[in-house]
Amino acid sequence: SELQRIIQGIPKTELHLHLEGSFEPELMFQIAKRNNITLPYDSIESVKEAYKFNNLQEFLDIYYAGAQVLLHEQDFFDLTWAYLTKVHSENVKHVEVFFDPQTHTERGVAFDVVIKGIHRALEKGKNELNISYKLIMSYLRHLSEGDAFKTLEESLPFKDIIDGVGLDSSEMGNPPSKFEKVFKASAAQGYKLVAHAGEEGPADYIWEALDILKVERIDHGNRCLTDEALVKRLVNEKIALTLCPTSNVALKVIQNMDEHPVAKMLDKGIVATIHSDDPAYFGGYMNENYYQTAKALNLSLEQIEQLAINGFEASWLSDESKKQHI
Ligand code: HPA
Ligand code: ZN
User: Fold this and answer.
1) Is there an atom of ligand 1 within 6 Å of 200 CB?
2) What ipTM describes this predicted complex?
3) Which InterPro entries match (predicted)?
4) What number is the average pLDDT over the span 233-238?
């Protein structure tokens, strides 16, 4: 459609993408086979059949299970490279991607195996696809702060290729405040800070991410609209929200795309941006997220362009590089 053509043409940035969530069933089967691992599915169709979720936790259980076939550096390279070639075709110019080291180190895959594969693909993407990148290591919030400290320690030899830390996994019952000390220690190592907050959790978790963890960007943040003082804070301090519309529908954070809060957020002056979260599981990469949102909410061309501009504004690119994209 005309709308899809317009969205394709807009240069975009992806700031909320879990590499493990870009693991397409086709590649999963291929890697499982060469690693002699049997998947609990007999076909790609039966995998897709299993991708029906009622909440975040039901998704996470399947997402962590899928990641278990990743064993070798080449597996992490292939995963990352497949993602980059996909978004290259969607006119994505810059990515800031998450990986979950603990999902792999917990099952005996060494930190360096994971990051070397990812980094090699990101460098190739920079050189061959002209996609610039930042890399964000995400702590799993269902695990302890001690475990996160262990991960921070393991990351230090790779400090130069890790730009920031994030916080993901099961939100309810695992508030940002649980990770106060490790975020402080991460900042002291020079890492930038972001955290998932207000996806399923309350606006209070967004306050905690800002005041206790001192993050500069909130991943999701849907629930902020329930708190006027919080909205004011986000606007005044230009704290970006990295929204993921198809994820929100897939995980029933909202029941329908036409309930998505992004239009209201733009109206209020929040630096809202749109991303894909876990596209292999939720069925939409960047352009599909823009398209479904624009269609359901009847966004104007100006609003669509604002979302893309906000993405570059909220990124960790230098002011110089931002100017080249906006
Ligand atoms: N929320 C929390 N943790 C996650 C997500 C998400 O949307 N995707 C991958 N890990
Ligand atoms: Zn996420």
Assistant:
1) no
2) 0.96
3) A_deaminase_dom, ADE, Ado/ade_deaminase, Metal_Hydrolase
4) 98
